[in-house]
Fold this sequence. Notes:
FAD/NAD(P)-binding domain, alpha/beta, 31% helix, binds flavin-adenine dinucleotide, 11 helices, D-Amino Acid Oxidase, Chain A, domain 2, 2 domains, six-stranded mixed beta sheet, 396 residues, 17 strands
Amino acid sequence: MAARAIIGGGSIGGLFAAAALRRAGWEVDVFERASAELSGRGAGIVTHPALVEALESVGAGTHDLGVAVEERVAFDRQGGRVRAMEFPQIVTSWDRVHRLLRPLVPEGRYHLGRVIAGYEETGGSVIVRFEDGSREEADLVVGADGFRSAVRGQFQPAVAPTYAGYVVWRALAAEAELSEEVRASVFPAFGFFAPAGTQIIGYPIAGPENDLRPGNRRYNFVWYSPADAGKLDAMLTDATGHRHRVTIPPPLIRNEVLAQMREEAEAWLPLPFVEILEVSERPFFTPIYDHCVEVMGAGRVALAGDAACVARPHMGMGVTKAACDALALARHLGDGGDVAAGLAGYSAERVPASRLAHERARELGSYIFGSPRETNPDGRANPRLEEIMRTTAVAI
Length: 396
Ligand SMILES: Cc1cc2nc3c(=O)[nH]c(=O)nc-3n(C[C@H](O)[C@H](O)[C@H](O)COP(=O)(O)OP(=O)(O)OC[C@H]3O[C@@H](n4cnc5c(N)ncnc54)[C@H](O)[C@@H]3O)c2cc1C
């Protein structure tokens, strides 16, 4: 009889783990907290060769993966080109990657609205408990349940995400709604604006339903902006006065918070980016947190993707890292003969790789700070500009 794995979390990390384990001969069930399918999230994802290889090797393929950008360009506050370099890369979206992976888990094996509450290891198996009171027995549980993972909370209770001191604002603008000038200058490239004290990157991605036709695509806008504890408190407080603990659902972001963001954008950002923000669907922010475990698997419990370790978005490594975790997990576990030995090998391989990405992304994030915005307000004089352009969204 095939060994059975339970995967907590049906996002990209969970789907990759499910697909890789199924190919290794496991019987796999995915339990996702959300009660509706996760499709439709539009934010951009950069691709790396390892992600493309992983998609091919689990059988997802890379059909219509994304938009090809050819160069990286840094802009100044006036919207002029400060520096440009040839840098071909495919940029895709969370939704595209999710839709390629989702069909690899058969109906009846992907369970929506099921929240993992904890687990007990019995020696011969692991019993996973759900918030609805139900239980499932398996040979392995994989926590792919994101950076606030319940599985990690039990497996490594001492590890807690810490706030990094800044948030990332994200927005998507329809290509057709941008002025001709912005479509010609900013839209086609992987763009940067890097004055001291803040940073923007942006690139084109497919339109709704993965529409890659020119005119129908969208611009993915990413703005890193410092926010001290007091400011974050205010930003995470909704209109009813409730202070959300870690992140706030986008529709609950108060209009005052959006208005303040727009005011800061007008004061600091190049005009093309202000225009991109103006025509965007409702922008939303995510506070940046750090955490990284020292053990990714032991006994009958494994962690994968953001549940194990986050690499801040500067490296664009989150999805690729989750894919590499999944492939390594399946390779070390084989058909499930000796789960504990397999997980020891998995952890020994993936902890150093995860920590490397985690540390490098922290370093890239630190470049936002350093000197006050006033020292380099127009983005021309950043001494690290070349390095930022060469290393952002690049795998290590
Ligand atoms: C601004 C920003 C930009 C980014 N850009 C990139 C990029 O360019 N490239 C890139 O590779 N990555 C990027 N990332 C990171 C990327 O989104 C994640 O790293 C990646 O999706 C892997 O996530 P995951 O599947 O491990 O976790 P998640 O996507 O967080 O999924 C966890 C899943 O588990 C479910 N869940 C949670 N708790 C439970 C529970 N108790 N029981 C059952 N289910 C549960 C959740 O509902 C969710 O579906 C970016 C992130 C941010 C914030």
